[in-house]
Each structure stands twice: as C-alpha cells, then as structure tokens.
Design brief:
It is a single chain. The radius of gyration is 20 Å and the shape is globular. It contains 15 helices and 16 strands. Helix 6 packs across helix 7 and helix 7 runs parallel beside helix 8. The chain is an alpha/beta fold. The structure holds the ligand COC(=O)c1ccc(CCNc2nc3cc4nc(N)[nH]c(=O)c4cc3[nH]2)cc1 and zinc ion. The site of zinc ion has 8 residues, from helix 12 and helix 14. Zinc ion binds next to helix 12 and helix 14.
C-alpha cells in the first residue's frame, strides 16, 4: 500500500492524536506542517536546509508544473523527486484550487475546466483524468483528487451542485489511478460552510475508501471561528485510521486549533510568503524586521529559537539585508519562519504525548499574543 497511517497516541482531552504516515519515500510524523514548494522548490531553500530543519514532506502544485515546465519534462527527468533532488515524501495538489485562484477565462463543465494559462494565455483543460495523468508523471507520494473549491461566500445551491460534482470527479480519479501501490490518492471533502453538505460529501467519499482525506473549501476568506466550526462537525465523519489533511492552513493559531480537532497534515504559503516582505513569526508574536527600531538591535530574531538564522545573525543584520534588497535576507527570514512552524508541530506532538495539549495551547497563545477565541 502506498500510504499507511499508524496511530501512536490519541489525546485524552481533545480530538488530537500523534501518528505516523508511512510512504514510499519515508515517514511523516503527525501532526505535520508541509512547506509549500509550488514550482518544484520551496522558495530560496535548498533540500539540505529543509532536511536541517527536519521537514518530512513538501507540497508541490500540479497546475504550476503542468503550465511550466510541463509534466512530460519532469517525467523525463525521472519524476519530481529527482528533478528537485528531494528524496523525502512529496504531496501534489491537483490543480482545481489553483485554476480558480490564478487563471482567467475559465469554464467549468461536468467534463472538467477550460481555462487560459495565467502565464501566456494558452487555452488549457484540466479534468480528473488529466490531473491524475499529470500527478502520475510527477510521481508524488500523495496525489490529491481533482475537485472544485467553491468561492466564499457562495449560494447554497451552487455549493450543493459543486460538491456533488466533486464526489463524481473523485470517482473518476479513482478509476484513472494508474499506480495505487506507489502513489496514494487522497479525496477532498467539500460542502462549503453547510453541515449537511459537508456530511454528505464525507459520506460519499469515505464510501469509496481512499487512503487519506483532505478537508478542502476552507481558508478561503471565512472567519476563523467558522473554519473551526466546520472542522468540529466534519473531522468526526472521517475515519480515525487514515490521515486528515486541512488544505491551505495556516497561521500558528490555526495549526494548533486544527491539531486539537484531529487534523494530521497542514500546508500554507504563509511562512514563506510573509518572509519575503520581512515579516517573521517569533515566540513573542509577529515581528516586522524592516521596522526602524531593529536597526541597532544586535540580538537574534527570536531569543527562544535555535534555528540557523537565530543562532548566527542579528536583527540589525537581517534588517540591513532586506532594506538593501539582498536575497540572503529573504533566505534567513524564510529559514526561520519554516523552522518556527516545524518546531511548533514538534512541540504540539510532544504536548499530545504528555497529555497537556490544551495547556500548551493556552501558554502558546499567551506568549504569541493571541487571545483565546
Ligand atoms: C500571506 O499569506 C498568503 O498569501 C496566503 C495565501 C492563501 C492562503 C489560503 C490558502 N487556502 C487554501 N488553499 C487551498 C488549496 C486547495 N486545494 C484543493 N485542491 N482544494 C481545496 O478546496 C483547497 C482549498 C484551499 N484553501 C493563506 C495565506
Ligand atoms: Zn529562528
């Protein structure tokens, strides 16, 4: 079997659990954060640096690699692992979400999605079958089913039609799955912010028996409390013996709240994207290093962090690099932000093992400057 979930410990005070996801390219300890490497690179990081911070898995994107350089080139390079020199697990998103967030002129039919490339305007087509062919060529360990992520807000009827089509598309993905022993196909639960549609979507998909389930359609602009509410009634509909992946999440607080609700895997561009404009996540909350007050601050970015950035460079130096538009500055903030979230997940796993996750949440939120919502 391409992916097997091993439950290590169920938290007594919440839905949280520590587990291991076994894949052909290694083990992922969960709850886990996946650094995002959209175009076959986690921006400015080398595979060696990602290993140094102990990232177990990274995410890449079907949509982007389909457009450029083309999945046939990646296939001829030996697949995504050899193309990008990453020998640990890779998860690829299926392209549904990216078509909607990036491309112009799109038309959705039962068959699939017609759209224009956001790069050169070429007329292109994605469908369950094409998305599976692309991910098969990329050779990712975990593939995502081709789905539609409804916008937020959206009419109930639209979400209902779209969610039912996503279930039909999931079945078409299963049918066109070429190498189920080498690659695991995860289904994506939709249903918007509607309990009945979420439960129906989960029932449709779990009846088809996938090796893992993602919760899609969230982190699309809804208030956080609404996302947590959807998780409260959706996660219990998913089998406890399989990984649960919350797509596009997220911020430190959302990772902790998601883990408490039983989510095992997360991904988000947040840490890498905000790093590029000099915003960092520290144990005392967000810190915008470009701020003039750090011009002569010769201490580390985060005094409680042991990462490469915080062990070797000062706030003053990193601020100087960013102000001087020196790429090394972005590398240092990116390294720290990724390490911060990976470390947060290590701390969450340890808190679950010690049966003190809710206390951990309270103290983390207090020091990070978040009020318990
Ligand atoms: C500075 O921070 C940022 O720029 C930034 C940008 C986007 C997000 C949100 C990302 N949210 C999100 N990604 C997603 C990816 C998804 N993929 C599929 N196939 N289906 C989904 O249903 C789906 C939902 C998502 N929601 C979060 C942060
Ligand atoms: Zn650091």
């Amino acid at each position: 079997m391409a992916v097997k979930y091993e439950l290590i410990k169920q938290c007594k005070q919440s839905g949280a659990r520590v587990g291991r996801v076994h894949t052909p390219h290694g083990v992922i300890e969960t709850p886990a954060f996946m650094p995002v490497g959209t175009q076959a690179t986690v921006k400015t990081m080398s595979p060696e640096e990602l290993k140094a911070m102990d990232a177990h898995i990274i995410l890449s994107n079907t949509y982007h690699l389909f457009l450029r350089p083309g999945h046939d080139i990646v296939k001829r390079a030996g697949g995504l692992h050899s193309f990008m020199n990453w020998d640990r697990p890779i998860l690829t998103d299926s392209g549904g979400f990216q078509v909607f967030s990036l491309s112009e002129m799109r038309k959705i039919t039962e068959e699939g999605v017609n759209f224009r490339s956001h790069l050169n305007g070429d007329k292109l087509f994605l469908s369950p079958e094409v998305a599976m062919e692309i991910q098969n060529a990329l050779g990712s360990d975990i593939m995502m089913a081709f789905d539609e992520c409804p916008p937020y807000p959206a009419e109930y009827q639209y979400v209902k039609q779209s969610t039912e089509r996503t279930s039909r598309w999931a079945e078409r993905c299963l049918k066109s799955h070429a190498r189920p022993h080498d690659q695991a196909l995860f289904a994506i639960v939709q249903g918007g912010m509607h309990k009945d549609l979420r439960i129906q979507s989960a029932k449709d998909l779990t009846s088809m028996d996938f090796p893992g389930y993602a919760i899609g359609g969230l982190s699309v602009g809804e208030p956080k409390h609404l996302m947590y509410e959807v998780l409260d009634y959706t996660v219990p509909e998913l089998p406890a013996t399989k990984p649960r992946y919350l797509m596009g999440v997220g911020s430190p607080d959302a990772l902790v709240e998601g883990a408490i609700r039983g989510v095992d895997m997360f991904d988000c561009v947040l840490p890498t994207r905000i790093a590029r404009n000099g915003t960092t996540m520290t144990s005392q909350g967000r810190l915008v290093i470009r701020n003039a007050k750090y011009a002569e601050d010769f201490g580390p970015l985060d005094p409680n962090c042991t990462c490469y950035t915080c062990s070797n460079y000062s706030r003053a130096y990193i601020r100087h690099l960013l102000k001087a538009d020196e790429t090394f500055g972005i590398r240092l903030t990116t390294y720290h932000n990724l390490h911060f979230l990976l470390q947060l997940m290590r701390d969450v796993r340890q808190a679950i093992m010690d049966d003190r996750l809710l206390d951990f949440r309270d103290s983390f939120f207090e020091s990070y400057g978040l009020h318990n919502n």
